[in-house]
Amino acid sequence: MKKRILLICLLCLISGCSAKNTEKENETLEALKLDVVKKDNCENKVSEYYEYNNRKVYFVCLNEVKLVEKPQTLSYYFNQTSNSFEDKIKAIKAGLKEENELNDGGTKIYKSENMTLIECHRVDTNKTNTDIYIGDENLEFNESFCSNK
pTM of the prediction? Predict the structure, then answer.
């Protein structure tokens, strides 16, 4: 009986510690402050910027996105930091406000005073598009975004 109680206490202690570690990891994920460099005379031109595991990041009417705190571009941040790609995207979204979720499978639109991020989650037949579109604060969702080509 004593062994069972000791084992239960040990399991509770171990599972409690792992939950605390997860909370600490989430706390250290800081929101990135980003600055966008707009293209002149752009008519919603979309250009592929970065790709990771078949997940593409597109710029819409932007030349570059830079980190405010560090003299780094977004592509440098994607390539050089140790966090996973998903954690990097979470850090970007943490600095934005979720404005809308579409009824296409879960595409979300995030905005700040100078930037819009559209995170696709469009489900068509057997494919799910999870690409990301980044533009200035005026970017609006376009039906050509998030399409499964």
Answer: 0.77
